[in-house]
Every structure is written in C-alpha cells, then in structure tokens.
Amino acid sequence: MSELNNIALKILSHGKGILAADESTGTMTKRLSAVNVESTPESRLLFRETLFSSESMKTSIGGVILYDETIKQNSSSKKTIPELISSSGAVPGIKVDTGAKSLVDSPDEKITEGLDGLGERLKDYYKLGARFTKWRGIYIISKNYPSKLSIDANANSLAKYSSIVQENGMVPIVEPEVLMDGDHTAEDCLNKTSEVIKKCFEELIQHKVSLEGIILKPNMILPGNKSNEKISNEKIAHLTLKCLKDSVPKEVPGIAFLSGGQTEIEATENLNLINKFNDTNFIMSYSYGRALQQSAIKFWSKDIKNIKGTQEVFNHRAHMCSLAAQGKWSKELEEK
Fold first, then answer.
1. How far apart are CA 196 and CA 179, in angstroms?
2. 2-335 domain in CATH 3.10.25.10?
C-alpha cells in the first residue's frame, strides 16, 4: 500500500492541493452560461486546458480531478489531457460516482450511485492515466437530518467504492460533504459532520480499506448559509480542527477541504487559519473547484483567446491557496 501512500503524499505535499475540474457537462454549462460563453466540448476543453497548461500546475497543483469527457480529450499540443497534467508533475484523477438520487425511505436525502460496473470503468481510467478517484456523498442538515439511514448508506457506499479503487491501484478521495444549505449553527455543523466522518471511517475499516492510501475531502465547519450566526474565521478554523482531531484516524495522510459555497477569499483565509492552528500530523490542503476557478473563468469569458491573461489570474489564485495550505497567506498578498 506504500505506493498509494506515495501518490496521496505527492498530490498534497509541499503546499500543493487539488484542482477539482470534474464538473459534469450540465454544471459546466451553467458556469459557462453565467459568463455568456456557449458550452460545447471545444469551449469546455479550451478553458480547462488553459488552466492545465498554466505555470501554477508545477508549483501549486498536485492533482486534478477530471470528468469522463475531459479525461478522453486531447490537448492542442496533441498530448492527451492526462499526459498534459502529468507533464507538469501533477497527478491526473477522475470523478467516478454517477451522481446522487433520492434515498429510498428518506426522499428528501440523497444517496450517491455508481458502484455498478465500477471495477471495469476503473481499469479503463487507469489505462488513460488516472491514479486517483473521487466519490462524493452529500448530507443535509435540518431538524431531522441527516438521518441515520443517510449517514449509514452513504458511508457504506464510500467504503465499497474505496475498496474497489484501491484494488485497482488508485487512491480514493473520500468526500462526505455536509452541505452549507440551511439555517443551522456552526455547532450543529460540527456535531453532524463529526457523526458523518466517524461513520465513514467505521465502514472504511470494516471494508479493509488502507487508510494510508486515501485522501479525505470534508467540508469546513461553518454555519448554514441562511443562519443569522456571525462567526469569526478563527472560530471556523478551531471548530474544523476539533472535528477532524476527534473523527479522523492518524493513519490518514492528508485532508483536502472542499470550498462548498465559500468565496475564493473565504476558502483561502479559512484554510490559512486551519494551517496556522494545525497541531496534528495531517497535511491540510485544498480540493477546490469554484474557489480556484471563479476569477479565471470571469476573466477568460471576456476574451477566450486571451490564454496568457487567464493563466495569470489562475496562477495568482492557485498561489494564494498554496500559501494558505502552508499557513503563509495574508490579505496583503491578495493585492500584489
């Protein structure tokens, strides 16, 4: 299993993190439509290739999560997309779940699908160059949720997925995302997220998944987006660390946070403080989608041929995240 541990450490060490570029065609179409760019296989590839060939891929990005469409595409230099990513020293990864649907017996909640035929798909993705994978379980917080049914069912799926991925020589990202949607307090988020993560590890251990060869991708501990609670970034960092110290076994090499509805600056500042206060042996890094791409896609949409300018915007954001992953970021650096 040391080979899987090496891959996980390569992705997250030295202030590097993960670029989550695995938006489905539907999600990517929404993102492009929001900036008035028509969504076609060519336009989606052009934006992604612009990021994948940027300078920060060598310094700030250790891994890229791809979508099924993208991993099979070729870049303008005729390299495959996984070859382009690997040439910068980053590791290509792939989203392997097939999305969430209503949970039987609790239709307000979701269960993630994609276990059918997963082994075969993984063999194909491995041949294409993928060395890590992603599967996202989602949970909602309200008076009655997440239910025990949702917590148990999603943990079981995440564990089965992880086991199959490791059998195929790849590192599974385990992503139990407790959504920010709702009016819950940070304390509610702490309690529910802790419960969710503990159950995931219970199942991972039961399924004999090597914890040294996974990456955990959790949410930070935040009040709901409809909550009136005002909370400092320091409190967010302390609550997040408390959750992880109480819930994550020491064998796990690294934690890559999702940005989950935070702005670019919020996601960067909170990660920075988590690392300033981090008294664990876990690497604490990032696996951001929007919080790495938002400024770049806005800039790019004004002139999709301005590759260099778009890359400069992306390089800045990726560098800020990398500094935050080392506890070295400050607001002043954003202005430079």
1. 12
2. no
